[in-house]
Amino acid sequence: xxxxxxxxxxxxxxxxxxxxxxxxxxxxxxxxxxxxxxxxxxxxxxxxxxxxxxxxxxxxxxxxxxxxxxxxxxxxxxxxxxxxxxxxxxxxxxxxxxxxxxxxxxxxxxxxxxxxxxxxxxxxxxxxxxxxxxxxxxxxxxxxxxxxxxxxxxxxxxxxxxxxxxxxxx
Length: 170
Description:
By secondary structure, this protein is α+β, with helices and mostly antiparallel strands. It has 5 helices and 4 strands; from the N terminus they run ααββββααα. It has a 4-stranded mixed β-sheet with strand order 1-2-3-4, covered by helices on one side. Helix 4 packs across helix 5. The protein is extended.
């Protein structure tokens, strides 16, 4: 997967760069092979459509412990090929525009873009498996409560504020 140079550059954290210099090993940003399914067709309005999905496991830097974390990615692709920016205004909501400026389309660029979009904003290990442990007191109590109830539901903002108010010394 060394073809994904933009993806590798986007995932390089200073810590990973330091490790690379020390070990002089070039680690790929994508573990193993990416699985890609693409279908090219035309819709009822005659637009060129690319649909499919890309699956891969990305090697990222955990933002809690700064260690390596493997994040599985399964991104859907729903693109309409357009020649001018103005055509994007007429697309239905479920289609993203892909501006084609040359005669040939490079699917690898499309796949790399979808993987870049699928990178989490804050990559981190799942709660309980990170060596850094919980960051906030409220997060630890909510995680424990979720484990007790068996719920992995996402916490709401008011629940987070309530946990912060209960934190001693704040």
